């Protein structure tokens, strides 16, 4: 018996009762097809078991069906910090639903950014998601200037030369709610382990903290603010500095849960009880927050949803509509999760 013939585009067109071009438009995601026709073509594809030739499709559409997620941090931090795991889960779920592949990359040095910029602007991906951006990051403007669809995780740190889409968290509001919680508990010497000053999240969480202090008429002396790097060790180092400069502090807002864990460790080593001597509020609501001793009061940010919204905005707007797409900004709400630490 001869080998069964592999289904072709023409066979799908005959089964669906449409032209070959219509089948191509359905396969390539064109909006110029009626819902009924699209369903008929998809039914024919399923019945025949037709598999599109991706290589041939790429020659016609110039699409790779691949999206890059670039984390502007060292590789070790990508796997150490829970924030990035949530982003990857959210991104991956949406891209899978859209039939797109995910390429994950890290870049922190100037050389990393240059090499990655060359690759990403060379037609190897359909679009790029950028997270954990610092002020010295050249990729947003370089890629947008090269016509590569881009979505940022977080607001741009400075007005970009080229308009870009972004998805952010309400970091100002979230941080303000954390500090208001400490104020409401009667604390008056409230310190903060702020995030990096060269990142939008670091700047915005510090701003929210300061706005809450100002609302309450509380002082904000320089010795009560130390910047960390969103890591456990960074939080521990910052807390040692704070205790040396302001030993009478009675509360701390840490701009990430990882830093809050370092703060907690340092306070314990210094013989300070939490929350009796020093109340503590973190930011992120990571899985570890509920299992610290005492459990950590923190700000929940919808990290997985953020990744999903970024991927959706990239696939459905930035890539689908191309350069004519109007830049969109999506800002997601936070909520305070009250536990025992503050």
Automatic annotation (TrEMBL):
This is LacI family DNA-binding transcriptional regulator. It comes from the Bacteria. It comes from Nocardiopsis suaedae. The lineage of its organism: Bacteria, Bacillati, Actinomycetota, Actinomycetes, Streptosporangiales. Pfam families: LacI (PF00356), Peripla_BP_3 (PF13377). Residues 7-61 form the HTH lacI-type domain. Residues 8-37 form the HTH cro/C1-type domain. Transmembrane segments: none annotated. GO terms for molecular function: DNA binding; helicase activity. Keywords: ATP-binding, DNA-binding, Helicase, Hydrolase, Nucleotide-binding, Transcription, Transcription regulation.
């Amino acid at each position: 018996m001869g080998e069964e013939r592999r289904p072709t585009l023409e066979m799908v067109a005959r089964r669906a009762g449409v032209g070959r071009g219509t089948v191509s438009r359905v396969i390539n995601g064109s909006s110029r097809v009626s819902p009924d026709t699209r369903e008929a073509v998809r039914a024919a594809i399923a019945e025949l078991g037709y598999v599109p030739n991706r290589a041939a499709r790429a020659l016609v559409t110039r699409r790779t069906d691949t999206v890059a997620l670039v984390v502007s941090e060292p590789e070790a931090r990508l796997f150490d910090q829970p924030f990035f795991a949530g982003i990857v889960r959210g991104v991956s779920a949406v891209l899978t639903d859209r039939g797109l592949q995910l390429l994950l990359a890290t870049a922190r040095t100037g050389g990393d950014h240059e090499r990655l910029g060359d690759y990403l602007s060379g037609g190897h991906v359909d679009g790029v998601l950028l997270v954990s951006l610092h002020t010295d990051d050249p990729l947003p403007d370089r890629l947008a200037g090269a016509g590569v669809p881009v979505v940022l995780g977080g607001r741009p740190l400075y007005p970009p030369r080229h308009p870009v889409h972004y998805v952010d968290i309400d970091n100002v509001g979230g941080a303000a709610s954390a500090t208001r919680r400490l104020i409401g508990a009667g604390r008056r010497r409230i310190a903060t382990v702020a995030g990096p000053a060269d990142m939008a999240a670091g700047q915005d969480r510090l701003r929210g903290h300061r706005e809450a202090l100002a609302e309450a008429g509380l002082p904000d002396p320089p010795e009560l603010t130390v910047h960390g790097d969103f890591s456990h060790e960074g939080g521990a180092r910052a807390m040692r500095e704070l205790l040396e400069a302001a030993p009478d502090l009675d509360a701390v807002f840490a701009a990430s849960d990882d830093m809050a864990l370092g703060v907690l460790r340092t306070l314990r080593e210094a013989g300070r009880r939490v929350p009796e001597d020093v109340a503590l509020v973190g930011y992120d609501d990571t899985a570890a927050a509920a299992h610290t001793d005492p459990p950590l009061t923190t700000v929940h940010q919808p990290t997985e949803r953020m990744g999903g919204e970024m991927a959706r905005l990239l696939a459905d707007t930035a890539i689908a509509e191309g350069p004519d797409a109007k830049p969109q900004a999506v800002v997601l709400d936070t909520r305070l999760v009250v536990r025992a630490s503050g």
